[in-house]
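From the pipeline queue, job 12 of 40. The input is one protein chain; the requested action is below.

Action: predict structure.
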Amino acid sequence: MNRRELQHVLPSGHVIKVVQGDITEEQVDAIVNAANEHLAHGGGVAGAIVRKGGSEIQRESTEWVRRHGPVATGQAAITGAGRLPAKAVIHAVGPVWHGGEQGEDEKLRSAVWNSLKLADERGFRSIALPAISSGIFGFPKDRCAHILLATAREFAEQHPDSRLQEIRFVLFDQPTLEAFAAEFRQQFGGEA
């Protein structure tokens, strides 16, 4: 598949990418799922991950919630990846958009940060993230792109020795890809 890809290498050697594609097909150590607090994977990215990866992802998620309780907004949980090419799925709970006055930006930043932290703690070298909260949760795509890319850069800069070397944002639809490409140019320069 011929796909559009933008890449920036930070001084630390970490690579941040924006690509067009299907996150369920990414050859990375971990993919991030845009999840709800009960890890009930019905629609959107979550539904696609379970359809492609198998019902064991939902079973493991249900068991995780049974043992630990719901995943708070801004936090993340991890399960196996079933039949997906990744080793694990990190389920990040982003905020529902309520106009930006209820701490949505910080909650989204936290969801991304905690996903990267979890991947780093597991010793993963690569991770793919969707545009968390920008689908059915209604977070504005341009604002989402700004927060996700800035958080990835900040995480890499604060963890220069991290084994997590590649942070990839995988966008399925054209409007989301365009929002991320514009923000990528803004933060890292270069052509998109």
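Job complete. The mean pLDDT is 94.
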